[in-house]
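Continuing from yesterday's entry. The apo prediction looked reasonable, so today I'm repeating it with adenosine-5'-triphosphate included to see how the binding region is handled. Same sequence as before; SMILES copied from the compound registry.
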Amino acid sequence: MNKPQGRPAGPPPIGRHPGPRFNGPAEKAKDQKATLKRIWSYLKNQRVGIMSSIFFVVVSTLLSLLGPLLIGRIIDDYILRFNIEGAIRMILVLAGIYIVSAIFTWLQTFMMIRVSQKTIRELRQQLFEKFQSLPIAIYDKRQQGDLMSRMTNDIENLNAALSQSIIQIVSTVLSVVGTGIAMFYLNWVLAVVTLLVIPIIIWSTKQIIKRSSKNFSQRQRDLGNLNGFIEETISNSHITTLFGKEEQTVAQFKEANEKLRASALKADITSGFLGPINNFINNLGIGLVIGVGALLVIVNFGVSVGVIASFVTYTRQFFRPINQLSNLFNTFQSAIAGAERVFEILDEQNESADVPEAITKNRYEGDVEFRNVEFAYQPNKPVLRKLSFRAKAGETIAFVGPTGSGKTTIIQLLNRFYDAASGEILIDGQDIKRYKMANLRNHIGVVLQDTYLFSGSVRENIRYGKLDATDEEVERAAETAYAHNFIKYLPQGYDTMLVSGGMNLSQGQRQLIAIARAILEDPDILILDEATSSVDTMTEVHIQKGLNNLMQGRTSFVIAHRLKTIENADQILVIKDGAILEQGNHDGLMEQKGLYASLQHQLQVQQ
Ligand SMILES: Nc1ncnc2c1ncn2[C@@H]1O[C@H](COP(=O)(O)OP(=O)(O)OP(=O)(O)O)[C@@H](O)[C@H]1O
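Holo prediction written out below.
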């Protein structure tokens, strides 16, 4: 089990020599007992697999205990008596024992891997399904990387522990106890000599672990920093290039890389002592056994050459698992800590359930009203303050206002990503909480600034709005969205494949596809977060026409950045600090010469 412990997971150290080694401090679960109990609840269904695995491990350990005993017998009863034929026969028996033991070891590993893979598949499935039903607030609250690492690292750690460490712990304990009994059975003086070495092994291992722990924590921190830096740089590579910061980035990386080299070296040097020191002590133990054994032969204390040979093999068999135990427990502990993190997500509250007898509708008129709505993401930091407005069916409402004023939050509440703390949001005269959430969301279409396009063809991306749409419907929607013109000039037209979220299209083109998708979806209420970045005039005209077609006949809420959309809106709400500062249509607001008029002036300058 030479796996780096704790998080973040790193590559296994290269160039290690054989023998035990400390792999860093283990991360402990907050409540080990409860987590173990819960892991057992997953394993319970696979009792047969686990029991047969334990049976195999017991048999293979017992067989491997027989080996050294037989070696002693072969020497004393056959070789020293020059019975070569008998010796060969016994050696064949010995080989048979080791072969059967190896087969049983393989069987035990096979059974346990099956058990582990089944358990992990179930857990992974549950976790993924949970991700689908978690409220959006969780994704806002937790880092994406953290959630990803629970799905990958933590589950993988548990997999390693289930498939290997548990059985290894069982076999280690069995083999230490069994070897101890066999040694006492053979000769109690030599057994005591062997036992004397154990405190030295434990003491030296402890000393080294104490010193390495600090260095390993530093190595993990430096590795985490380096990985974080790499991730950030790769995902923002265009920004780095844009600002010409390549040299600076390389210099920063060099520094982090050097820090990791230094701390990894320190950690590996200290932990690297463990192998040679333990080897030295093991050999010392064997030397002692041989020396004392020889003395006992001389004084005729019931020790034969064969007994010494058995003892040498047993001594090796005895020390090896003791050396490994601390690492095994470390792996095991990290796995439990990982499982606990997985369970933590599984225990998160799902998105609030629908009220009993929730309403479903085939069509929403689109009459939307906010009544004294208040909301805060964090306690004592109000984002919306007694917000009230009404959008009559079919109207276009534009939200404008400074950054951070709460425009996106209004939309989040309408979508029920969050619920209002107080006040009411009504659609067609009913509180939105009375509608079945999935039904309501199916009738609300969203076109966001960062259009979500997935890797697939243009056609598939548009069809995402209505999965059973025919090719003709897809193309008709693209035409209405004014997207058809650019799509037909793409290398494979509608079958052109999009890569990494549509990075092979311009931002304007991506938005045209999103508009086509929304047209196909044909929602009753539309939410539109206009892109801020400027696009070429032709695309701009197409987007505007596409949007006009899309907004036709449905209530539309627009976080507006473009003059045209704002001017044509039925109502413009100027939001500041979570409240409506000004309200009216374009002409009326311009006359007021307030915030709206000055924002318009800024927009005109920009465009
Ligand atoms: N998930 C969140 N958790 C905590 N605070 C948040 C969260 N999302 C937004 N906020 C805060 O709520 C306030 C309103 O944010 P919101 O995104 O609604 O503003 P906005 O008007 O849409 O801004 P922009 O024009 O920049 O998109 C801001 O102060 C923001 O920092």
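Comparison notes:
- Residues 307 and 532 are 85 Å apart (CA to CA).
- DSSP finds 20 helices and twelve strands in the chain.
Will overlay with the apo model tomorrow.
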